[in-house]
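Example record used in the benchmark description.
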Amino acid sequence: MNVLVYAPTKTNQKFWLLASLTSIALLITLASIFFWQNNQIIARTYQLQHLQEKLTNLKEENQFLEASATQENSLSNLEELISNLGLEKAQSVSFIQAMEKSVVAR
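Model output (structure tokens):
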């Protein structure tokens, strides 16, 4: 009975060693890229949540300021401010109308 035994050559062993090391390096590189991208996505998600919270706070502050401005500019508040200045309400108002072709000379 003849048994054929395959003895790997040194060239074949070097090829498989190089292929294995290349595969391992590729897997490590791909895993690193995956974890880096995952980290970037998580960071951007937290940043987006923070900015959304900030936007909500600014909208609430804007509504408060608009309500405050409306209240400060109300007619009753303005009348009170005018009375504190010692001004009086005008009884009658008359306007001067200029003629279209009038010229003022000195």
